[in-house]
Design goal:
Elements: E1 6-12, H1 14-25, H2 29-49, H3 53-69, H4 71-82, E2 86-92, E3 96-101, E4 104-109, E5 113-120, E6 123-128, E7 133-137, H5 143-155, H6 159-181
Antiparallel strand pairs: 1-2, 2-3, 3-4, 5-6, 6-7
Helix pairs in contact: 1-4, 2-3
Amino acid sequence: MSETPFHLQYTLSRGQRIVPHIRIWGIAYSPFILVLFGFFVVAAVFNFSRFRLWDGIGFVLFAVLVFMLVRGFFVGIIDVLTTRNREVDLLVEKTAAGVLLRGQRRWLFLDGFVEMSKYRRDVWTLRHHNGSVLNIPTAQISEHQLDYIRAAMERGRTAEGVRAVIERGRRIKEISNEKKQT
C-alpha cells in the first residue's frame, strides 16, 4: 500500500449531498423528524396567535428539543437548502484526511471511518465515528485511493488499531490539558 498522500478538489451538487444525508438518517425517519418539528412549530404559532402564552412556550420548547436531539440532521438539510454547490478540498495523508472548511483544515483520522457506501450511484459516502460525513464523487477518486482508505479503516478495527486509537486519544488529551494550563 502506498503512503503517498493524495489531494482531491471537487464540487458536490445538492442532489449529491441530500440523497446520502437522507439515506443515512433513514428514508422513513427523515420525514418523521420534519413532520414532528413542523407540528411543534405550527402548534406554537397557533397558540401564540390565540394568546396562549404558556402553551406556545411549551411547543417552542418541544421544537427546540427535537432540533437539539437531531441537530446533525437539520444542519445537513439547512446546508443543502442554502448552498447550491459545495466546493470540497480534501487532503488524504498517511493517517488522516483533512477537509478545508472556512479556510481551516479539519482532520479526521482514517482509522475512525466506520462505513464506506454508495447511497447514490455517483457518490461515495464515508461516515466517521464522530458523525462527520465525507461525500466524494466516484469520478474524482480512484479505486487505488479507495483501497488506501479501506485499509486504514480495517486497521482501526483490529486490536492493535484500537490500542493505537486509545493511545492517540490520551496524547491529544494531554496536549489539550497542557494548552489549558498555559
